[in-house]
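Weekly modeling sync, notes
Attendees: S.R. (lead), two postdocs, one rotation student

Agenda item 3: backlog of single-chain predictions. S.R. asked that every request posted to the team notebook include the full sequence so nobody has to chase files. The rotation student volunteered to paste the first one in as an example of the format we agreed on. Action items at the bottom.

Example entry:
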Amino acid sequence: MPGVKNDLREADVRFNTHDYDFTNKPTGSCSNKYDIRSVGTHEAGHVFGLGHVGDGHENLTMFTNSFVCTTKARTLGKGDVLALRSVY
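Predicted structure, as returned to the notebook:
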């Protein structure tokens, strides 16, 4: 039924490859590249209805800013999971 909470049917996510560099395997020699899987997980959080979290929550996937050369946002933190549970 349209208009009911959680009635999303489809979503598209686009990566800005013009202004940002992405990699699938950040290594020790990584320089100024974002992990595409971490960014994808973060954006999927938006698709599922999550917003950003602010300072003091840098360990969560839904933190406002992404960090270069790290894969830590590929998996959800406890706060991310609790937020999803509150939506669903």
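Discussion: group reviewed the output briefly. DSSP finds two helices and two strands in the chain.
Action items: rotation student to repeat for the remaining queue; S.R. to check formatting next week.
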